Amino acid sequence: MKFSITSKGDRKSEDIKKRIIQYLEDFELEYDKEEPDLAISVGGDGTFLEAFHTYSDRLERTAFIGVHTGHLGFYADWVPDEVEKLVIEIAKNPYQIIEYPLLEIQIHPKNGGEIDRYLALNEGSVKTAEGSVVLDVNIKGEHFERFRGDGLCISTPSGSTAYNKALGGGIIHPSLETIQVTEMASINNRVFRTVGSPLILPKHHVCELIPIHDDRSFLITVDHITKTYTDVRSIECSVSDKKIRFARFRSFPFWKRVHDSFISDER
Ligand code: NAP
């Protein structure tokens, strides 16, 4: 089996990376940055997002696992003290695969040029540095509302505990193939009106965002990546047909991770 390691880059993460490489090579596993069967991230959830985007074009051939060197992560859920145990599990035991849904984002340009396509593990968001974001929101081809405000966030179930949660969105179990649309400071008065609640869409409901002002540029984020776009005709968001595959060696239920991260890690 071939493996890769994405490290946060700090001393602790680099030390653990070196140890894991050495142990796994002792077990005659091959370190391969280009085509790993198993991508290991060492750092936090941010590092895990980086690993995901490094290998997002080979999701059916790469499984992921995360070791956290700071606080408990949602994706990085092995602690440094467990590294030896994890290495033996990887080398000796077949792992179970757990799949989580992803968000697909398509950015259609005005001039009919090439569509930019992204996969997000946490979320995509649309913001602007130029006043308010003004967008028509279509759901499944039907006009739903005209949004005015700071922006919109469209998250995956596993991303629901990240930016989405800070925006008042609900926490969604990753066994549900959905995306969630949350508002950022919408303008609501007698003239402008939005639904004001997070929307949870099923797999077959595409959410299309159509900019109203021709001259406005957008900051579009995909997980930890931010890009500026001008001349956007529409942004299409939907549940992707692709999924992330986690290598699972032990049970760590989603709601336990939510509890330990946000309530208390004491029993
Ligand atoms: P960052 O601003 O350095 O860190 C964002 C925080 O979100 C980190 O504490 C990170 O955990 C945590 N996080 C990432 N994914 C998570 C998840 N699925 N559930 C719970 N917490 C999660 O940015 P970054 O490290 O590059 O990560 C990018 C992510 O930041 C975006 O995908 C977005 O979700 C999040 N974000 C959050 C807010 C907010 O909460 N107000 C605003 C903007 C962006 P670690 O410390 O373990 O890395």
UniProtKB/TrEMBL annotation:
Its main location: cytoplasm. Keywords: ATP-binding, Cytoplasm, Kinase, NAD, NADP, Nucleotide-binding, Transferase. It is found in: Cytoplasm. Involved in the regulation of the intracellular balance of NAD and NADP, and is a key enzyme in the biosynthesis of NADP. Catalyzes specifically the phosphorylation on 2'-hydroxyl of the adenosine moiety of NAD to yield NADP. NAD(+) binds at residues 45-46, 122-123, 148, 150, 185. It is an enzyme of class 2 (transferase). It comes from Aquibacillus rhizosphaerae. Its EC number is 2.7.1.23. It catalyses: NAD(+) + ATP = ADP + NADP(+) + H(+). Signal peptide: none annotated. The gene is nadK. Belongs to the NAD kinase family. The active site is at residue 45. This is NAD kinase. Its cofactor is a divalent metal cation. InterPro entries: ATP-NAD_kinase_N, ATP-NAD_kinase_PpnK-typ_C, NAD/diacylglycerol_kinase_sf, NADK. Gene3D superfamilies: Probable inorganic polyphosphate/atp-NAD kinase, domain 1, Probable inorganic polyphosphate/atp-NAD kinase, domain 2. One of its GO terms (molecular function) is NAD+ kinase activity.
